[in-house]
Amino acid sequence: MGKEFVCCSFLLLLCVSIAPRNVAASHTEDDGVGVLRLPEQKDVHSTSHMGMGMGMEENDLLNPGAKVFATIKDIEVGKTMPIYFPYVDDPTSFQLLPKHKTQHIPLSSEQLPQLLRFFSFPPDSHQALAMEQTLNICEMEAPKGEVQGCFTSLESLVDFAQGIFGPDSQVGIVRSSMISKSTPLLQNYTVVESVEISSGKLIACHNEPYPYAVYACHFQWGSVNKVFKVSLRGDNGDQVDAAFLCHMDTSTWSAGHIGFRLLRLKPGESEICHFFPAYDMVVVP
Question: What are the tens digits of pLDDT across the range 219-263?
C-alpha cells in the first residue's frame, strides 16, 4: 500500500505496533482492557512545543521538567548536563490504535458531554478536564506557516506525513528509549555518543492526555531542523538512547521562549534543541 513504516532500532526508525486495546470501560468484553489512566499533569516539556514561540512564567524556569533544552555543542561526547526524563509506566498506553477502533468516536469539544458519558467520566472529574484541554489543543488554529493536527491512528498519521513528505514516502518514527521506574526524573547525564540521523522535513508529535492515544503533531514549512540520536549514561548508571530535535533557525521566535531564557540566548543567536521523552515522537521521511 506504500505506507509501510521503516524499521531500524527502538530509538531510530521505530515500527509502531498497534495492540488491540479498548476505548471505553463499558466495552471491555468487546475490545480488551479498561480505560487508560490519565496522567496527573503534563510536564513542561510536552506542553511547551505546540507553539514554539510561547513564553512561560518566570517561576517555570525552576521546574525540573524544563531541563530538556540544549544546543548542539552540548551533546559533544563527554559533556555532562542535567536532563529531565520521565519514565513510562505503561508503553502500550502510547500506541496508536487501528483506525477502525476510533473512527466512530468524534474528537470534538462540541461532543464532549456525549464523550464523557461514553467513557463514564463525571463532568467535574480530572479526566473530564484533561479531555477538554486536549480537545482544545487539537482545535487550535495553526500558527502562520505551520500545519498541525491530532491523530489517533497510524493510518491517519501516515496520511498526514505523506501529505508533507510526498505521497510515495515511507515514514519513520524517532523516539527515546523507555526510562525505568528506578531512573530519577532529573539527574546528570554524560554524552556517550551523538549521531545525526535526519535533517530537513520533520514532524514533531506530542502525546496528549486522553482515554486512548492522541498525538498532537505540527510541522513548520520552510523550517530547518535536525534530529540526533544521543546515547546518555546517567549518574546512576542507566543508559538512555535519546531523541534530540534541533530547530536551527530561531530568528522569528519570541525572546520570551523558555529555551532562550534557560540557555541565556537570544532569537537567531543559536539553534534551540530539546530532548524528547519516550511518549513523544518525531516523524521523519
Answer: 988 888 999 999 999 999 999 999 999 999 998 888 889 999 999
- C-alpha 21 chain-centroid distance: 21
For residues 106 and 84, what is the distance between their CA atoms, to the nearest angstrom? 34
225-234 vs 239-247, strand pairing mode? antiparallel
Contact call for residues 10 and 177 (beta carbons, < 8 A): yes
Place of cell 502500550: 92
What is the C-alpha to C-alpha distance for residues 109 and 278, in angstroms, rounded to an integer? Answer: 27
CA 165 from chain centre, in angstroms, equals 19
- CA 218, 196, 246 angle in degrees (round to 5)? 40
H/E stretch holding 146? strand 146-151
Whole-number Å distance between alpha carbons of 72 and 58: 25
DSSP run (H or E) holding 127: helix 126-138
Over residues 67-100, the pLDDT tens digits come to 999 999 999 999 999 999 988 877 788 889 999 9
Rounded Cα–Cα distance for residues 258 and 74 (Å): 17
Beta carbons of 32 and 22 less than 8 angstroms apart: yes
Environment class of 49 (CB within 10 Å of its CB; exposed 0-12, middle 13-18, buried 19+): buried
Helix then strand then coil, in percent of the chain rounded to 5, is: 25, 25, 45
What is each CA distance from 193 to 8, 178, 189, 190, in whole angstroms?
18, 18, 12, 9
Residues found in the chain: 285
Q: Which residues pair with 195 in a beta bridge?
A: 229
pLDDT of residue 49: 41
